[in-house]
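Task: fold both queries, return tokens.
Query 1:
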Amino acid sequence: MFDRAGLLLVLTLAVNLAVAAPADLKQSDDTGKEKTAAQEVKPDKGDFQETAPVITEHTVTLPGGQTLSYRAITGYLLIRDTKQESQPEKDPGKEPNKEKSLDQLDPSKGKPKAQIFFAAYVLNGVADLATRPVTFAFNGGPGSASVWLHMGGLGPRRVVLSDRGEALPPPAKFVDNESTWLDKTDLVFIDPVSTGYSRPARGEDAKQFYGYKQDLATVGDFIRFWTTRYGRWSSPKIIAGESYGTIRAAGLSDYLQDRYGMYINGVVLIGSVLNFQTIEFEPGNDVPYPLFLPSYTAAAWYHKRLPPDLQQLTLRDVLDRAETFSSEQYLIALARGDSFPQTDRDRVAGELSRFTGLDAGYLRQEGLREPQERFSNDLLKNENRSVGRFDSRFTGIRLQPGTDHEDFDPSDQAVIGPFTGAFNDYVRRELKFETDLPYETYADVNPWNLAENKYLDVAAKLKQAMSRNPYLKVWVCCGYYDLATPYFAAENVVRGMGLDPAIRDNIELKFYEAGHMLYIDSASRRKFKSDFDEFINRALTATPLNNAERPQ
């Protein structure tokens, strides 16, 4: 999926909001009637019909009866090329036109490259913005819009699903999100280029934005300019990313420091993958197999495929045993390869069978290696069912029963309809944002350039950011039933970061009995919110360090 040719030259971008300053934007009138502020301004060279963002007023009711009053702001930030479109002509017989030269050097006059769609929620009645955090949130893919975090866990409205996160009969509906983060932080949801309503400018190749470094430059510049335009440099800042968004969030923690001197208070990694070598099943790469095994055990336990002595244990107890086997006997067996004695191979195959619910003979035939896409089809093969990659609790009817062909992901199909339908209704009917563009929940952004190594590893970037900013707090959220970014792999990467003891406690992991999108499970969503409240309190109450104190 991520085979890349060479590196693209990183485009230096600057963001220019294509509208008036926030103070000039129309809001609700005295009667409370919402206005869309849809007046158009002069388009820039035919690239975009630039419109003011839409601002509407809302409330959300939380458990216990607390009501939050807030503004929703939906619209675009315009990304421009910072290089001069043309150099001033030199005429030895004339004085240079200084005014024209300065205009040509103004980055805000640069060529439009793309427009980035965002939805922001700002609490009303805040007297001092320096006391009010702002969280920038996005999903992953790459190629995914931010709708999942927006209407699944963080925003003031959420999609209605079953308590386990299953789709209900259409049409989709949304309700107040009792677990919204808005009581603790303002929220800005970002859709990278080609996702959601974000698009490249006319004549611009979208592929120039498709890559690790290019993506950091684009999203980083968006964060910088949104912070500037809305006067939030004095506010504490949190970055929250899910899936590939954790790669982006970890990279941004370092990029924003280097590029803009913007130091972040907290980073939230949901369904974390900081090192691609831990999740890519390819010949010669044995790293993922022992890291996925405990997640296979969780799936087999949930679907009652383990032997009785393991099945009777609690999930956490059986995972402890699976982790021990995976880190010791299984790891050694994989490392020894063909030199591993046959009797020992048989013994390990038997244990592997016990922890996965798969046939021992079949596992021996596979060389003790079961890739995730095979496991999803194999676990319930005799029932003509597959289990979900994003959430192994979900099952789906096999389209190609009895084969090893990769099938659709039932946990993906369970959410894409409800989230897409609910968002399209919500953004137009409640947020009053009107466009005929399709909202791209998933966009094809291939080929995606992963920079120097296809096994992209950003753990070192996160370590660098934490070391240079010892106040930075990091929270890693993992679902036990996640077969896309397994919890044991995330834990393994964190343990291997080699953090200095002085900042080692700045990173913490939390685990949930849910999948990749842990917030679609009602119990996990409540725990997710409670854990966030603790995290942001830690991130905002760091004790000043005495790094220049003279030794006694």
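Query 1 returned. Query 2:
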Amino acid sequence: MNIRKNSRLFHALNDPETFALTFELVPGRGGQTREINRILALAREIAADGRFHAVSITENAGGHPALSPEVLGKEIQAMGPDVIIHFSCKDKNRNQMESLLFSWDRQELHNLLVIAGDYPKVGFRGHPKPVFDLDTIQALDLLTAMNRADDDRTAAEGGSQAGRSASFLKGVAVSPFKLLEAELVMQYYKLHRKVAAGADFVITQLGFDGRKFHELLLYMRQNQLNIPVLGNVFIPTLPVVELMYQGKLPGCVIPEALYEQFQWEARTADRGRKARLLRAARLLAVLKGLGYAGAHIGGPGLSFADLDFVLQQAEDFSSHWQECLAELTFWPRDAFYYYEKDAETGLNRPEPATRPRPVSAGLAYFLASRVHDLAFEPMGQLYEPAKKICLAMEAGRLHGLLDRFEYLVKVVLFSCQNCGDCTLADLAFLCPQSGCAKYLLNGPCGGSRDGWCEVYPGKKRCLYVQVYERLKAIGRDQGMAVGFVPPRNWGLNNTSSWVNYFSGLDHTAAENEAE
């Protein structure tokens, strides 16, 4: 049975005449709190109103433990509206993911927003272990396999037969609101991979700049990324504005000019509440005018009266939405735009902005790539000798010496974590196991800011910013828009990646099979 036939969200997203509306609910810690009761009451009003096509429910937002989203999802789904469950990678390994998906399929919770997730924060008796066993692309690959009832996959890996196919509708996130070229372009390159892995729709990160929202839509159209996209309409409280301005909410940027506007509005009798609602209404009208498939509305402490006000005002603004653009120009002047500005409309021309190429990828990249091409590419001059030596040493008494020698070389050069399934050649000879806090293999998360890692701001640069800079210097950055790196095989942990490569045991074997 194809559950999508009964999905109001699916039909709204794929109907050119419908502007889909979703609303985000954020459950907190505890299952019997006043906040949970408030959320359910709001969901009941949204269901009765009928203008929203779905509500989405976050999973441990901000990295904090909270009520599991499917619990509220079942209650809200019984009220009538579709539900979008946030499906994050931070707390679950691949087996737990599959187990949850089986249960959600049985409960008919089929609409998902697949995300990496915010890095876990302090929990019971200290800091929890971050999992990130699969990244977003790999999780999409799992969902796509489940949707086609890929029994060959489960049987080959020792699993039971999955039964009938599932019908998951797979949403993903993307952020055009990145300050640096490397951060922004890698977001777009990863979006290519998400679509190729089976994404069905996109929700943007929050932002307050019409030209940035137009940029994403233009990029997707030019690159034939033909899936529906929802623009994020976020209505913050003043404390949340402060957190975003200070960079304490990963991936969320409040530019200086907008921060000053919020501060000025806060001097009014209602502390700027009406001004924030009107800004959301203008953005909603702009998104509809630009051609977005819909909007994803959210914000803490909103009442149904607030939502009703925003929707009614947006209708009033819709006939002259271009005039609203002048009040939605909040992005730093020195921040990167992918396209040249259209002076007449205030949006973008279809010509990409000039992107000067770095002078060099660096000596470390040059030496590492040269050795790799010689010894680890089948056409390399040293490939056959290297293969024979490694396999002979592994089969003999010297296998321990080979393992230690490889680890010593790679820990000095690449901070190797001895995973046994090396991806250095896939990522410009930078190690994601030591260089990325989330161990991501197919592109960046959305949490970086000013080129810094979400987890170590000011201390550690985002791995994928460095990957982009190296690859762009040699004209190979567009290669990050294609391909698929399978998840790490933990059965190879603390073994020789050289031996695993030459024996056909690592991830490159799966890549070659796919080709």
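Both queries returned. Flag for query 2: The chain has a mean pLDDT of 93.
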